[in-house]
User: Which sequence fits this backbone?
């Protein structure tokens, strides 16, 4: 018996090394991403890419969220074995650029028009996404998952309340701050147990509200005007106006704050008329609607009707390329990045999620396919239009500064304090600005601006 | 007296040398306002920090000096003296050190070095993923008391105003830790002892009941958080609220009201710890000699008096042990429960010291400030343990004494 156990242990020890020995000579490209629910990546992209480029072995690893991904990546860097590609987020753009972990995409491409036979399509990136992802006209990361906030509406509820004529009348969904009040007054009057609107008290809507009103989030043109950010402009009149609007919705009982995942339940139960969230949530919203027998409509994020609309800012993320790879490994990683920008892949990525097609060719592919006509209830086209229609003003480019992720954490605290504890709006924003400025000062001390 | 003076001098030196004799910038929001029952006082954060630090270090040095002096006296004046009793090695015996070495090396590498590093980090402006760090005196500590994002509000009842501090986000977080600790220690011990008393009755199937009651202890904090989130879920979607609704009762904002959220976290954590406490208390009650109880009842003591005057003193070492462990649990181990139940919300109402360390150090990558916070946490636990051993230790009766 003892001998048997020893034998088994030896076999167990030897087996893995045998399988390792059988390993091929393919170059491994590791991509750490966060799309555990997007089966398209492992089911379609991975086999297709490996079939097209048999010299590469694509290894996908799913991580739990942007922050977790960057944390684990930092650890992997500290231990000297980072993956070749990492999913990054738009709320943490500058710190990775300063970290020295990543190679600017434009440097890796080095002016080439194709990589491994795949065309470089960076000049096809749609306007607002382009200005968001570019710095000084160059791409540092691969623009990939981009979205804007949009309002999804339960059209059956809107028809029942008399707000919409029929379930395809998406224009009934409010698209200005005043219209939200008007529609919500009707909804709340009509139904006893239906909440009017829900959206997160988070940073992204705030950033979009500023961009839509043409306000900058931070000085030096959001840090893109040549000098880096030294202070945020969170206490501007535009910021106060937006939070006052949000607070007025809360006070009137129109905006309801849900806990995690609760909005899915209320949405499914038709207890929520309007839900503002990322256009990337489109598939989920629509599927819940289909499963529960109601039509889901969508319209743009409501804007301040008293001010000229300037534009929305994208949220989402990008894919970062690790610095210091062996040339043939870097070539493989670049090949995969360019592969993702191929029209068919951009189109399928869009269909699997709701993220906008970031390239013109991807958009054209979907249009030629008739996707936008066949899916009127899908809100995708709305988000896309919103992005392509919006003026390409610097305000919509999004702020870049190293402590942005940290400041992003503070938004939530301050906004919830305003909404729940009736904290004074101007005073809260003044304090938020002071705290954020301190963080920026600290960051700039560690990473001086000229080193950027 | 002389010892105290030396310790005081060494204490301030030991504090100031690693701090490079730096001076905090008083303009850097170094004051916070505290109003207690209406009256307002302005507290100078620099003074508090300085005095606290010097006192703590001086105290530690005095303690060490005192030990050395005793050691020296015991050895008859020599720093160390070879033991010349028959049957021992002549000269210093190094063998204990050799046997201790593996443990000591492990402790040094995995505990003492990181701890020392933490103290160093506490004086640095440091961010994860940024190689450069910069010395910033005690700013990390000062920023704790001067963070102005949020005021601290504490209420005994939802409208009974107790104290309010302006510009005191950290104070609010600190208050939450204190609240959770008091709540959990009280509830888990009173309930734990009561259940143990019931479970020690000699009834049929007692072992089954005991097992069932101890069982929550085997559940991880993550699961506890999720289970209670399902039970208490806000907006009427939670199980308890669904049941209440059947009886026409308005949904209780368990997780969305600051006060309810604190109680919910406290209950979840106390429930988690309850099994452990019951287990220890059952063992403790079994160790109470039957003859003592018998003697007390012959003397005419009723059940309550027997409990108060015989059982409690006899099990006091166990109570001490359980309270001590619960206290440390409440301060250090609540993260999983809080993160899965309330995520520290609403508006930080259930964010305690540990959750905040993780939020600042991991989520915000501000490891300098997180290190400062963890040092505060460390000092609190050291202080609490010290007080506990001094105060409670005296009241504990050990059987042999």
Assistant:
């Amino acid at each position: 018996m003892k001998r048997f156990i020893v034998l088994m242990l030896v076999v167990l020890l030897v087996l893995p090394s045998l399988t390792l020995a059988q390993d091929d000579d393919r170059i491994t490209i590791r991509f750490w991403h966060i799309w555990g629910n997007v089966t398209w990546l492992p089911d379609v992209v991975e086999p297709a890419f490996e079939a097209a480029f048999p010299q590469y072995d694509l290894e996908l690893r799913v991580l739990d969220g942007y922050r977790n991904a960057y944390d684990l990546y930092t650890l992997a860097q500290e231990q000297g074995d980072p993956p070749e590609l990492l999913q990054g987020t738009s709320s943490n753009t500058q710190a990775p650029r300063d970290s020295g972990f990543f190679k600017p995409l434009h440097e890796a491409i080095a002016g080439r028009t194709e990589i491994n036979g795949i065309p470089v399509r960076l000049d096809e990136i749609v306007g607002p996404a382009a200005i968001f992802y570019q710095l000084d006209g160059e791409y540092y990361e691969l623009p990939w998952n981009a979205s804007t906030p949009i309002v999804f509406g339960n059209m059956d509820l809107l028809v029942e309340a008399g707000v919409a004529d029929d379930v395809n009348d998406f224009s009934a969904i409010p698209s200005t701050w005043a219209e939200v009040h008007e529609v919500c007054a009707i909804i709340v009057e009509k139904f006893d147990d239906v909440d009017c609107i829900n959206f997160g008290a988070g940073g992204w809507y705030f950033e979009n509200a500023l961009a839509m009103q043409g306000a900058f989030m931070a000085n030096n043109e959001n840090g893109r005007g040549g000098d880096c950010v030294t202070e945020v402009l969170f206490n501007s009149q535009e910021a106060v106006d937006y939070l006052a609007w949000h607070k007025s919705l809360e006070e009137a009982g129109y905006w309801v704050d849900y806990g995690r995942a609760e909005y899915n339940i209320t949405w499914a139960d038709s207890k929520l008329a309007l839900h503002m969230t990322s256009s990337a949530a489109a598939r989920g919203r629509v599927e819940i609607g289909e499963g529960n027998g109601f039509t889901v409509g969508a319209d743009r994020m409501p804007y301040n009707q008293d001010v000229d609309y300037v534009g929305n800012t994208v949220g989402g993320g990008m894919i970062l390329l690790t610095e210091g790879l062996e040339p043939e490994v870097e070539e493989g990683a670049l090949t995969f990045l360019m592969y993702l920008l191929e029209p068919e892949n951009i189109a399928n990525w869009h269909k699997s999620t709701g993220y906008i097609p970031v390239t013109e060719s991807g958009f054209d592919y979907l249009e030629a396919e008739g996707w936008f006509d066949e899916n009127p209830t899908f809100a995708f086209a709305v988000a896309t239009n919103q992005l392509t229609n919006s003026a390409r003003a610097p305000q919509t480019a999004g702020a870049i500064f190293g402590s942005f992720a940290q400041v992003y954490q503070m938004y939530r605290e301050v906004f919830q304090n305003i909404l729940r504890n009736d904290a004074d709006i101007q005073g809260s924003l003044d304090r938020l600005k002071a705290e954020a400025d301190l963080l920026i000062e600290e960051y700039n001390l560690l990473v001086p601006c000229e080193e950027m | 007296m002389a010892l105290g003076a030396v310790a005081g001098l060494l204490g301030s030196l030991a504090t100031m040398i690693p701090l490079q004799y730096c001076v905090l910038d008083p303009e850097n929001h170094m004051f916070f306002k505290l109003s207690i029952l209406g009256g307002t006082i302005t507290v100078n954060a620099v003074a508090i920090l300085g005095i606290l630090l010097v006192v703590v270090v001086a105290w530690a040095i005095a303690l060490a000096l005192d030990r050395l002096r005793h050691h020296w006296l015991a050895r008859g004046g020599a720093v160390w003296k070879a033991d010349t009793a028959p049957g021992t090695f002549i000269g210093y015996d190094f063998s204990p050190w050799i046997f201790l070495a593996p443990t000591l090396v492990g402790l040094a590498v995995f505990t003492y070095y990181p701890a020392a590093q933490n103290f160093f980090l506490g004086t640095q402006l440091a961010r994860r993923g940024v190689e450069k760090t910069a010395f910033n005196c005690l700013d990390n500590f000062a920023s704790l008391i001067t963070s102005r994002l949020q005021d601290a509000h504490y209420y005994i009842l939802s409208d009974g105003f107790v104290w309010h501090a302006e510009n005191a986000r950290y104070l609010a977080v600190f208050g939450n830790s204190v609240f959770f600790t008091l709540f959990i220690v009280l509830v888990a011990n009173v309930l734990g002892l009561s259940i143990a008393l019931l479970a020690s009755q000699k009834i049929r199937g007692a072992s089954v009941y005991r097992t069932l009651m101890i069982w929550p202890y085997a559940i991880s904090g993550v699961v506890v958080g999720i289970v209670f989130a399902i039970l208490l879920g806000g907006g009427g979607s939670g199980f308890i609220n669904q049941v209440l609704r059947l009886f026409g009762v308005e949904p209780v904002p368990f997780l969305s009201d600051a006060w309810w959220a604190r109680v919910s976290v406290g209950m979840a954590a106390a429930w988690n710890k309850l099994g452990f406490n019951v287990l220890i208390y059952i063992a403790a009650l079994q160790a109470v000699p039957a003859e003592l109880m018998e003697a007390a009842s012959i003397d005419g003591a009723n059940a309550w008096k027997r409990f108060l005057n015989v059982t409690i003193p006899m099990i006091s070492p166990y109570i001490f042990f359980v309270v001590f462990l619960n206290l440390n649990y409440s301060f250090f181990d609540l993260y999983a429960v809080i993160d899965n139940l309330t995520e520290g919300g609403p508006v930080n109402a259930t964010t305690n010291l540990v959750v905040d360390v993780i939020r600042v150090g991991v989520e915000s990558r501000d490891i300098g400030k997180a290190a400062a916070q963890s040092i505060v946490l460390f000092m609190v636990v050291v202080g609490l343990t010290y007080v506990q051993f001094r105060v409670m230790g005296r009241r504990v009766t050990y059987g042999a004494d």
In short: Strands of chain B lie at 31-36, 39-44, 124-125, 134-135, 152-155, 161-165. DSSP finds 14 helices and six strands in chain B.
